[in-house]
Amino acid sequence: MTPKTISEKEISHLSTTLKPISAQMNSWAEKSIFLKWGVLSRGKFHCLECTHSWKPESQSKPCEKYIKCTACQGRLKMQGCNQVHFREIEYCAVLDVCAGYQVVRIICSHKHMKKNTAPTYFHKEVMQHWINPKGEVRTMSLSTNVFSNVYDAWQYYSPLEIRPKDFQNSPKYRINPYKVFPQLKVLPVLKRNGFKTGFYNITPQILFTSLLKDSITETLLKSSQTSLLSYYLISHEQHIRENWQAVKTCLKYRYKIEDFRIWEDYIALLRWFKKDLSSVSLICPENLHEVHDKLVAKKRELQRKKYLLKMRAEIQQAQVLYTLEKKQFFGLRFSEGDITISVLENVSEFIEEGDTLKHCVFTNEYYKKKDSLLLSARIDNKPVETIEVSLSNMEVVQCRGIKNNKSKHHKVILNLMNRNLYQIYSRLKKEKRC
After folding, report:
1. Which end of the chain is less packed: N or C, by CB atoms within 10 Å?
2. Which domain-ending residue is among 149, 180, 211?
3. How far apart are CA 433 and CA 72, in angstroms?
4. pLDDT digits over 342-368, tens only?
5. Where does a domain end: 299, 328, 358?
6. For residues 350 and 387, is the Cβ–Cβ distance under 8 A?
7. What is d(CA 292, CA 301) in angstroms, rounded to the nearest whole number?
8. Where do the DSSP E strands lie in 167-214?
């Protein structure tokens, strides 16, 4: 995109004045962000880090997920196949300051490995996030291959170009670097607002922009509520803002929230029952899950007894709106072994899901969430876990079984879901083009 405004032209010019990524930074990335790998081939272990090879000492060794190289003593993660070439891709970040801007430079690093050959590396700066003291951000990035199934298929030969303001809605903007180069250069205002050195699994550009313009982020960081801060910024839910008075009560009495999503659902239930939201005993329960489940059951019973006819009418109306908003995802289904994951296509299925798994997916009207897509993981057509996917972030928000607990199939379900997020993204992208 050709820079048009004064700020776009300024950022494009300043970008050319930045020092290139140094050999020291590349060397740090090679040592810090990559795993050490090994492979079992033709009855021998091969270390892809130091090229050493040796025979297993026992029959059980080949089955282990990690082994120790007998030469370099590195802890190797084992590849489960007889491939010849291997590649690992990771992101890291370098923080810089330029002309009053906080610059977050994102580097994509490749590690190429082959048996009996020392690994080789390739590093390329793929994005620059320019943040002014008001928290406004503009991004420069390389172009990507639009025909690829992945959103970060970079065209490494392309130049860094200024991107539109709505680039913040792109999944590329939310790429979280595995590590940040330890020699941090940050604006003084960020230090004043509470930033020290930690990112708490929050993408640097998201933490910085929020810290510069959002008093809630500043309060949470300065009060060392880092878990709550991560939830606030990573989940992109605005319930913390809506429940800010209740959150401040928790901060005041140093109440540790065990499960933020359950707590927010619990506060929503208290509001539905018109309870006193200034009461410490209600806001800070000793057993969160127990009181949450009691209110869910109570609300469900009231809905069934007093508003059955009204609920049926609402379901019919809600179904029309739900179909209109989510019809492009209907029919989406994928499976692995006995587990099948499919999109909930009818509002009545939300009732079945909530009744079977005893959670609040219907009670709290998740079918009305425009940014969420709800799916059901089933075995023998019986619900095992309900999955919520954020359509803006293209990530699994929550995956819960009976009484909001994880089922024994949780890891398999989560892995299957993450591997197929591209199908949801593909349908969403297709709908936007139409």
Report:
1. C
2. 180
3. 52
4. 999 998 888 889 889 988 888 888 999
5. 299
6. no
7. 14
8. 179-180
Q: Report the alpha-carbon distance of residue 433 to residue 272 in Å, rounded.
A: 39
> What integer pLDDT is reported at residue 231 of this predicted model?
86
Nearest to 52 by CA among 30, 32, 34, 69: 69
- In the chain, which residues have pLDDT < 50? none
Assess whether 257 and 345 both reside in one domain. no
Residue 309 covered by a domain: no
Distance, in Å, from the CA atom of 111 to the CA atom of 197, rounded to the nearest integer, reads: 27
Q: Quote the CA–CA distance of 48 and 420 in Å, as a whole number.
A: 30
My answer on whether 72 and 175 are in the same domain is: yes
Q: Which helix (H) or strand (E) holds 426?
A: helix 421-433
Cβ atoms within 10 Å of 148's Cβ, excluding its own: 12
Which letter, b or e, does each residue of 314-340 get, where b requires 16 or more Cβ atoms within 10 Å of its Cβ? ebeebeeebeeebebbeebeeeeeebb
- For the entire predicted model, the pTM comes to 0.68
pLDDT confidence of residue 433 = 63
pLDDT in tens, 98-135: 999 999 999 999 999 998 899 999 999 999 999 999 99
Domain count, the chain: 3
Of 141, 212, 200, 210, whose CA–CA distance to 176 is shortest? 200
Contact 155, 142 (CB under 8 A): yes
Q: Are 57 and 68 in contact (CB under 8 A)?
A: no
**Alpha-carbon gap, residue 304 to 363, rounded angstroms:** 11
Secondary structure (DSSP) of 4-62: -SHHHHHHHHHHHHSPPPPHHHHHHHHHHS---EEEEETTEEEETTT--EE--SSSSGG
Answer yes or no: is 195 within a domain.
Answer: no
- Measured CA to CA, the distance from residue 280 to residue 246 in angstroms comes to 9
Pair (261, 384) in one structural domain? no
